Amino acid sequence: VKQLIVAINKMDTTKWSEDRFKEIVKETSNFIKKVGYNPKTVAFVPISGFNGDNMIDSSSNCPWYKGWEKETKAGKSSGKTLLDAIDSIEPPTRPTEKPLRLPLQDVYKIGGIGTVPVGRVETGTIKPGMVVTF
């Protein structure tokens, strides 16, 4: 896991207390720093999952919250909601130039079709019509 979002849930139970949010951000920042993450690269978002506040649209319950900001490889990224934070996640680069590596998850024997291996391409590429031996 290279990128994190910290959604601080149940803010409605603290009546959207700014002090409680800052306290949780401070404690969580210290913890994620200890496990090897830079807190400046993490978005901290106050939400109420039960009420749906600050998840898709900005909540009027926390006028003190100006939004999150985080550092990324491309520069700085910012937003207000959990959806904004999810949208700011940079997709990982796939090593398509390497040889094909496809760990098998399962093998199905389907009548009339044959043996169908199922897995996820980790490196390389696979195209329709390619002959792959296992």
Index terms:
P-loop_NTPase; single chain; alpha+beta; Rossmann fold; TRAFAC_GTPase_members; T_Tr_GTP-bd_dom; two-stranded antiparallel ribbon; about 130 residues; Elongation Factor Tu (Ef-tu), domain 3; nucleotide-binding; GTPase activity; 6 strands; 2 domains
> Could you name the CATH topology of the largest domain?
Rossmann fold
Helix content: 10-25%
CATH class of the largest domain: Alpha Beta
The CATH H-level homologous superfamily of the largest domain = P-loop containing nucleotide triphosphate hydrolases
Q: Could you tell me the mean pLDDT?
A: 92
* Largest pleated sheet: 2 strands, parallel
Number of self-contained structural domains: 2
Number of strands: 6
Gyration radius from CA atoms, angstroms: 22 Å
* Overall 3D shape: elongated
* Annotation field: number of helices: 2
Beta percentage is 15-25%
User: What's the CATH architecture name of the largest domain?
Assistant: 3-Layer(aba) Sandwich
User: What structural class do the secondary elements suggest?
Assistant: alpha+beta
Please provide the ordered H/E string of secondary-structure elements. Answer: EHEEEHEE
How far apart the termini lie comes to 30 Å
Protein name: Elongation factor 1-alpha
InterPro entries: P-loop_NTPase, T_Tr_GTP-bd_dom, TRAFAC_GTPase_members
Pfam family, one: GTP_EFTU
Domain Tr-type G: 3-91
